[in-house]
Amino acid sequence: MAVPVIIFIVCFCAGAVTSGQILPDLAAGSVGGLAFFIVCGLLGAALGLVGLHTYLILDALKQSVGSIPGVGDFKATTVAHGLDEILLEAGVLVGLAAGVYLLSPPPFEESEDHNPGSAA
User: 84 and 33 in contact (C-beta within 8 Å)?
Assistant: First the structure.
């Protein structure tokens, strides 16, 4: 029972750290920092679910070898059902992460053309 938990934790950490390195920065401050933290956490959780479901698919296939004679499409059904669960659960988390990221404030960049105090 410890193996699925370890797989989820490793995949979660890998997803959160990788997304923190790859994603562009958001606005400085509490709102941008919180949004970035939430996005990295959601993407880490999505990768954790992908790893967990992959382990469960492989475990179900390993246990089904030779145990069900005469049922040829059991393996295909197991893989299809597992992929369906991966896409449903991880897809929702990735969609939420994308929504939070797109709705969060972008970083403020000063340009030389934008100076509200000067009169031209």
Answer: no
Q: Which amino acid is at 1?
A: M
What digits encode the pLDDT tens for the residues 4-54? Answer: 899 999 999 999 999 888 888 777 888 888 888 899 999 999 999 999 999
Q: Is 56 in a helix, a strand, or coil? A: helix
Q: What's the rounded Cα separation, in Å, for the pair 84 and 80?
A: 6
Residue from 75, 72, 48 nearest 60 by CA = 75
Global pTM?
0.79
Q: Which residue from 87, 88, 83, 91 is spatially nearest to 57, judged by alpha carbons?
A: 83
**Exposed, middle or buried, 3 (CB in 10 Å: 0-12/13-18/19+)?**
exposed
* DSSP 3-state of 34: helix
- The residue type found at 28 is A
What separation, in Å, do the N-terminal and C-terminal C-alpha atoms of the chain show?
A: 70
